[in-house]
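DM from R.C. (forwarded with permission)

"hey, sorry to bug you on a friday — could you get me a structure for this? deadline for the figure draft is monday and I only need the backbone to look sensible"
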Amino acid sequence: MMAGRGERAGAVVLALLLSLGAGPGVAADGPDGQTRPAKAAPSRESPLAAYLSGRVARGAGDWGRAASSLTAALAADPDNKALLTQAFLLNLGEGNIPQALTLARAMERLELNSLPAMALLVSEDLGAGRIDAARARLAKKPGDPLAQYMVPLMAAWVEMAGGKPDMAKARLQPLLEAPGLTALAQLQLALMADQAGRTEEAATAYDKALEGGAPLRVVQLAGNFQERTGHPDQARRLYEAFAADNPGNLHIEEALTRLRGGGKSKPLVATARDGLAESLFQFASALQQDSRHEMSLLYGRISLFLRAEQPLARLMIGDVLAARQRHEQALVEYRTIGGSGAAGWAARLREADALRRLDRNDEAVKLLQAMAAERPDRTDALVRLGDLYRAADKDQAAIDVYTKAIARAGGAEAKDWVLFFARGMALEAAGRWPEAEADLKAALQRRPDEPQLLNYLGYSYVDRNLNLPEAKVLIERAVAQLPDNGQIVDSLGWVLYRTGDLTGAVEQLEKAVQLSPADPAINDHLGDVYWAVGRKPEARFQWRRAVQLAQDDAKLRGKAEEKLKNGLPQDKTAASTAPAAEAGTPR
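My reply, with the result:
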């Protein structure tokens, strides 16, 4: 089965404390010097009603009302530990740092050992030069499982701020011994040795951080070090190796251009405060990659509190917000980056995506057209524009844009496979199958093992009852790479159905439904197969589910409703009679 024309955004399950929304949980110092949550604006609701109102507002996506209601509830019960914790996490997640700081102090007064609260307060201490206070807070060691990693990381940079690089190195030892965090720890050692002027030690640590490949930021930091210490050729080799694996990366292109022009580099991480901000960003990035979006957001916010000018950290926060379907807030983060450099370009591409998801397509089109004109050597803005047109069922406009992108790229390199794939999908949607097939095959020649492409071409054949043996081979290759992808497993079940292997079809489609239970097309397919094997009550149950789930797909819903009334057109299997669920439509 192919990816749907409408976006199939995976639902991100978030903790309640972060999904309640942004609350102005303001707090103030009392006359005794203790921190107290401040009084909220007068409310006619009782505290319980305010809390429940906030829950309802959160469920409806009304973040402003949820915020004010939760604040009112907290002001009425300032020592409520659960409510105080919620308010703190919400404010921190929303970037309301002054409020989060005040609430963190209130939590400390009530002996709530929260790792995010401690991390925020320690960051404030380090920024203000209160090294002893930061050490005292870190000594409390909250019971959070992440504390075994976060505390050594923060303690090391606190010691660097106190002018004790040897002690800082000792503090990092637990991270050096932690599975999966060696590269992160080596990067901290490199940055600290770099700041301390220990060039040889820094060089060794940077090399270790780069072992086994490295993400963009590590390459940037290591390359910056090589540039500053008189090794431009080593920096160039590092950048070029990354560029070979990541063609078109503007950050690396900028670095290479600077090198060729003899430009000078300044340290990217110049102080202990910068170092702690960098380490928190790196840690937040690791959490994001592990799909721990709420924790990533919290530590990303603390990182930006320490150092606001971190475009990559702000991009990450925007991406986390977008994953939570909070596209207006993501727009704010992307637009804050600004500039015409690499980070600004990446932010504007994401801005266009956010605008599209907010149904502000005219703005997105205008932005992408301007970007495509601004950099006539690049194809990424054109591809995003084509994707936007394709999602809006403007197939010819999409085809024209993709064709322009292919002309720009030359179309001869392996990386150009995605351009042919995109145009092939648009051509298929426009009913121009022979041209679509040619593009899909051209994409496959350039990327022969891409599972989504294998699945797409294979399912396209199945949908048309064409080349079924070849389709089966293509889909089986895709399943071998992504055996837990419900849509691809559905494709295997569907080709087995079309070739008469009903037992195999039932097995695969039942597995597909388990993997993707809310996918209407998979439920519809399973209904067809159940009908073919005589399990008619179960078939109608699956078709009914397809109708319920296909609210955004009138064509599929209509076909499922017709089958609920009359069954399949003929009570046979079906290589010859089974109806295509959505013939000619990408899924």
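R.C.: lifesaver. The longest strand covers residues 27-29.
me: no worries. Residues 2-43, 572-587 have pLDDT under 50 and may be disordered.
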